[in-house]
Amino acid sequence: MVHGHIFLYVASLLMLGLSGTTKKEAVKNNSGVQPAGQCGTWVKEAEGGLFTSPNYPNKYPPERECIYIIEAPPRQCIDLFFDEKYSIEPSWECKFDHIEVRDGPFGFSPIIGRYCGQQSPLYIRSSGRYLWIKFVTDGELEAMGFSASYNFTADPDFKDLGIPKPLPLCEFEMGGPEGIIESPQITKEGKALATEAVDCKWFIRAPPAPRSVK
Questions:
Q1: CA angle, 21 as apex, 50 and 169 as ends, to 5°?
Q2: How does DSSP assign 35-53, residue by residue?
Q3: Is 99 a residue whose pLDDT tops 60?
Q4: Domains, the chain, with CATH or none
Q5: Is there a contact between 42 and 97 (Cβ–Cβ < 8 Å)?
């Protein structure tokens, strides 16, 4: 029997990564984001990464919503560092342009904070494997934006268990008007043995909408 978790992503902007480093100095601009500052990019990096608001350090564009989800390996948590060169339109309770960080993988996970103005939040650590980050801009008063780097460190709640060996890569891409997702695909397609722990993901691409005939 295959043990693990199955995640179904229908439409998301994701940013995932893997790392074992803990020092801010060890984080490199190796996130794979090209061009730098692309909005809502999903990346996977073994040594952490760096992401920025669009156009950073120049002014970010109006009316954007960028969502990033950072996922750490099992038994690790996330260290998130914001650069001191930081400027987001200030407002009361950050109701307009802002960064929102949540402690988990969803937009309804517990909120860590909402940030704007001239003072960078500098450092945030997750309580578990995930951080959900949203950057929102309205139609007025753009500013420099932000640059943030992330890496991973051992979760203190699991310090006596050590870090488990990496899980096998288990990802599927599916498309078409309909289909079936089932766990036997994992062993049939050689993604993992029946005795291995897994963390599998199915990515589903909907077919394009038909063009209307005039």
A1: 80
A2: STT-TT-----BTBEEEE-
A3: yes
A4: 13-158 (2.60.120.290)
A5: no
Q: Is the pLDDT of residue 64 over 50?
A: yes
pTM comes to 0.62
Check: CB of residue 54 under 8 Å from CB of residue 60. Answer: yes
> Which residues touch 87 (CB under 8 Å, ≥6 apart)?
117, 118, 143, 144, 145
- pLDDT of res. 214: 58
Q: Beta strand pairing status for 171-175 and 197-205?
A: parallel
User: Quick one: average pLDDT of 9-35?
Assistant: 37
Eight-class DSSP state of 87: B
CB 95 within 8 A of CB 115: no
pLDDT in tens, 165-200: 777 888 888 888 888 888 888 888 888 888 888 888
CA distances from 133 to 157, 163, 178 (A): 23, 26, 31
Give Cβ neighbours of residue 46 (< 8 Å, ≥ 6 apart): 17, 18, 19
